[in-house]
Structures are given as C-alpha cells and as structure tokens.
C-alpha cells in the first residue's frame, strides 16, 4: 500500500492527550462530594481504578486550582487514664505484622464534639491486617461499658479463633476486670502498649485521624443520635467498604479481605495441591 511502518502506530492527537483538565476537574469534584478529604494520591488512585491514565502531579495541580485541598482543624480532649492500680499486660503486638485477618485486633477510644458543646466518645476495634473496623460504640460517657460494647459487637460479628491478640493502650477502660475477663472468655490474648507510646497502636490512631478529617470535622452534630448515625454510616458504608487505603494497595478493607480469601482458596484448590 506504500505506507511506512510508523503509520501503524499512529494515534489521533486528541486521543493521545486523554481527558482535558476540565473533565478531570469535574471527576475530582464528583469524588470530593463522596470523599471530601481524599488527598491527591488517593484521588489519583481512584481515577486510575476508573480507567483513567493520569499523573499524580497533574491531579495535585488541578485540585489546587479547584480549591479541593483544604486545611484541617483540631479540638482535643483526653480519653486515656492510665493512672490506676489495675493489672497491665506486656506488649505482644510490638514488631508484629499480621498477614491475615482475625490474628490481631487493635482497640482505642477517641472524642467527638457536639455543636452545642460537650463531648461524645467513640470506642473502636480494628483488624490490624485489613484495617477494617470490626466493632464500635458511641456514648456520652467515658466508661468501661463503652469499650465493652465495642468488644461485644466485634466478637459477635467476627467470632475470632482463640489466640487472636487484642491490643490497646493501658487506659482504665481496657484494664478493667470486666473487660479483661471478657477477653479471656473469648480466648483472646491481652496486649497493651508501652507507657506514653502512641506508635504502639498506630493503626487505631490512623483510623481516628481519617475519621476526624473525612467525617467529624466536616459536620456539626446537634445530638448524640445524629453523631451515631453519621459516624456509623461513614464507618460501614465508606471507610470499610469504599475508601481506598494506601497501606492496602489502594483497596478498601472489605476488598482487601475478599482478595486474601480468594488467594487462600486458590492456594488450596486441587490443582495447587501436591500429588
């Protein structure tokens, strides 16, 4: 036909350029409505998951131009009281890197402010492997019942095998006799952080940071009921199910657990078993 070999590689320039800045901005604005505190890295990962080939530098530039990057605000309240005479336990979680769910749980408590003043408190338990919130409870009282309520929900939902590590700080809520007895009854190993070292419970701290930045700081809860409903929706419908986690290869906790289950099933299939 008299054509050069290079002609087979030709692509229209419009196709090579990909989507325009205006189209990317519209997509970013749509994502920001659902995930209002996504940074440019997660935005880039989400766009790529949606089939878009795009550079993170371009995403950051467009987000800045569109005003989609924002500052964080903070309020503080103390939730940990380790000045008690109750027994404490050694740190079994230090240096541990669980490779499958149901091996290690991390527990902690944080505060949530109300619009009219005052605080509510959230106790949460996460699976350290998948970062999934497996149990939580919100209350206007910082008592042992708050932590125990989150634990009971986690045990009912997940039913871990004996030997699973339960790691927390040395707060009185987790050292209380009723709480530790419940852990022993369920066959869980008790582990506690070193004094004054938040890095020993970094996964729980990271979840609370995400919760505050992407949910709590964006709203003004008028009542504990409203806070419970909105936070519950964020945990179950966004954080566990849809939000991309950089530590999980930019998948959600639910997707990550499903992938592990699928891989484990494939490993046990007859074709992969020795004769």
Question: What's the arrangement of secondary structure elements?
Answer:
Blueprint: H1 13-17, H2 21-34, H3 40-49, H4 56-66, E1 104-113, E2 119-127, E3 133-139, H5 144-158, E4 165-168, H6 172-175, H7 177-185, E5 189-192, H8 202-214, H9 224-239, H10 253-267
Parallel strand pairs: 1-4, 4-5
Antiparallel strand pairs: 1-2, 2-3
Keywords, please?
single chain, alpha/beta, 5 strands, five-stranded mixed sheet, 275 residues, 10 helices
Mean pLDDT: 84
Strand order of the largest sheet: 3-2-1-4-5
Structural class, by secondary structure, is: alpha/beta
The low-confidence runs, each spanning 5 or more residues with pLDDT under 50, are 268-275
- The N- and C-terminal alpha carbons lie at a distance of 57 Å
What's the shape? Answer: globular
Number of strands: 5
**Total helical elements:** 10
Radius of gyration (CA) equals 23 Å
Q: Proportion of β residues?
A: 5-15%
How much helix, percentage-wise, in residues?
40-55%
Biggest sheet architecture: 5 strands, mixed
Helix and strand succession? HHHHEEEHEHHEHHH
């Amino acid at each position: 036909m008299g054509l050069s070999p290079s002609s087979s590689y030709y692509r229209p320039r419009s196709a090579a350029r990909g989507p325009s800045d205006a189209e990317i901005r519209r997509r970013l604005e749509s994502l920001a409505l659902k995930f209002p505190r996504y940074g440019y890295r997660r935005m880039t990962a989400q766009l790529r998951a949606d089939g878009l080939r795009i550079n993170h530098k371009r995403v950051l530039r467009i987000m800045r131009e569109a005003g989609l990057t924002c500052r964080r605000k903070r309020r503080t309240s103390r939730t940990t009281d380790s000045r008690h005479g109750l027994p404490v336990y050694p740190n079994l979680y230090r240096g541990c890197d669980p490779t499958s769910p149901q091996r290690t749980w991390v527990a902690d408590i944080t505060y949530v402010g109300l619009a009219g003043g005052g605080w509510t408190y959230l106790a949460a338990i996460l699976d350290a492997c998948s970062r999934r919130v497996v149990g939580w409870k919100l209350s206007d009282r910082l008592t042992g019942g708050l932590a125990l309520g989150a634990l009971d929900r986690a045990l009912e939902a997940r039913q871990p095998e004996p030997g699973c590590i339960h790691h927390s700080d040395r707060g009185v809520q987790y050292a209380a006799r009723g709480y530790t007895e419940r852990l022993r009854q369920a066959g869980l190993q008790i582990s506690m952080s070193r004094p004054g070292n938040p890095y020993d419970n970094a996964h729980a701290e990271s979840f609370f940071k995400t919760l505050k930045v992407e949910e709590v700081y964006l709203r003004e809860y008028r009542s504990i009921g409203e806070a419970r409903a909105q936070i519950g929706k964020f945990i179950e419908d966004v954080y566990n199910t849809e939000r991309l986690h950089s530590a999980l290869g930019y998948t959600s906790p639910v997707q990550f657990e499903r992938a592990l289950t699928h891989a484990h099933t494939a490993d046990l299939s007859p074709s992969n078993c020795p004769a």
